[in-house]
Amino acid sequence: MTDEFDFSVAIPTYNGEHRLPELLERLQNQINTEHISWEIIVIDNNSTDNTADVVKSYQASWQSPFPLKYCFEPQQGAAYARKRAIAEAKGEFIGFLDDDNYPTPNWVATAYNFGKKYPQAGAYGSQIHPEWEVQPPENFQRIAPFLAITERGNLPLLYEPHKKLLPPSAGLVIRKQAWVESLPSQTILTGRTASNMLTSEDLEMLSYIQKAGWEIWYNPEMEIYHQIPQWRLKSDYLLPFFRGIGLSRFVTRMVNLKPWTRPVAFIGYAINDLRKIFLHLLKYRTKVKTDLVAACEMELFVSSLISPFYLWKNGYLKKGLKND
Fold this sequence. Notes:
CATH superfamily of the largest domain: Spore Coat Polysaccharide Biosynthesis Protein SpsA, Chain A
Shape: globular
Helix content: 25-40%
Strand content: 15-25%
CATH topology of the largest domain: Spore Coat Polysaccharide Biosynthesis Protein SpsA, Chain A
Distance between the termini: 41 Å
């Protein structure tokens, strides 16, 4: 068996024993991969359930020509799991699937072919459809993209740097060369854990890749279905979730900027955040406390405003942003 592969599917998981079987079954049934050498790697990010036993059970009866591998990453956080996946993967391209992302049968083949067709693509995201356990509120589409729902049409789309929009990590494919050449050895954002609400580690990573001159794309032919359980639509999940996104924003806003422009950008962003808060209060008034979507948006705006102060006070900025 070769030591190198065309494509690696990396599955970072935390306590995924009940979600992994469906994903592994779907990967076993991928079509049109006869010309591709590929592998699957499950990155167990310090699970406390039977995730390891589930993977070992599959390995024991694995009949597919592509290997199923398992590795344990003890350091909690999505960024650590992703970094470990990059280190372990032997593929030219690494496709990331969360354990609640279920791909269509041609996902691997389509992902590999897209990377070959677009040699300047350092990363590219999937079209992500929601599978709601219960229907969300009618106005939920305003904040749905933050839950890794990406339906941006049926044509490939280049993410332009000036638009400040990037794909989520669910269903994301990274060209390994782009990661190795672009990312610093240590990033600031590491992913949400029980003791850390900061998120957007995927956007920090993609910002570095884009800053290095690689293209970032949306590929609608790579389709996945994101399972969204009922509890993810509750305020006790969503409000801290949006707070974490907002508190992380100083990093994701500044990564792509030249060091000398950052003080000016800091002031500009602060003024714009204050404007958004004022207009939001004017529009929704008391509804910012009773309307879940309006409350989430307000949490995002306020947290974005205080992001640099929060990060500085809690020592996150000691790592520093990578300069040119």
